[in-house]
TrEMBL record:
The keyword Cytoplasm does not apply. It comes from the Eukaryota. It is found in: Nucleus. GO terms for cellular component: nucleus. This is Transcriptional coactivator p15 (PC4) C-terminal domain-containing protein. Keywords: DNA-binding, Nucleus, Transcription, Transcription regulation. GO terms for biological process: positive regulation of transcription initiation by RNA polymerase II. Belongs to the transcriptional coactivator PC4 family. It comes from Leptosia nina. Residues 24-41 have a biased composition (Basic and acidic residues). Pfam families: PC4 (PF02229). Residues 1-41 are annotated as: Disordered.
Length: 106
């Protein structure tokens, strides 16, 4: 005589949808420039491309530059530009026009 087997009751969890992820991954935030804690205010654009506000020979500059690593330190590379505050403000004022031009070319 066969042993009594428990009958499976159909439930909502018996589906062919695959496993249920009870802990979905957190939503990724849009990548934005992040500010680092440094002597000079610094923002990371991407990888080793940084924006720094720095003082050089008594004048303030916005430095947009690619950095390289040497002996564990990030050092400024040749690829970049230093803008005086008035040049930086001018660049910002041209932002909408530049964005429109980029959009028309893409």
């Amino acid at each position: 005589m066969p042993k009594n087997k428990k009958q499976r009751q159909a439930s909502s969890s018996d589906s062919d949808d695959g496993p249920v992820d009870r802990n979905p991954p957190p939503e990724k935030k849009a990548k934005t420039a992040t500010r680092t804690d440094d002597k000079e205010p610094t923002w990371v654009l991407q990888g080793k491309k940084l924006v720094k506000v720095r003082e050089f020979k008594g004048k303030v500059y916005v430095d947009i530059r690619e950095f390289y690593e040497k002996d564990g330190n990030l050092l400024p590379g040749k690829k970049g530009i230093s803008l005086q505050p008035d040049q930086w403000r001018k660049l910002l004022s041209l932002g909408d026009e530049i964005n429109e031009t980029i959009s028309s070319m893409c």
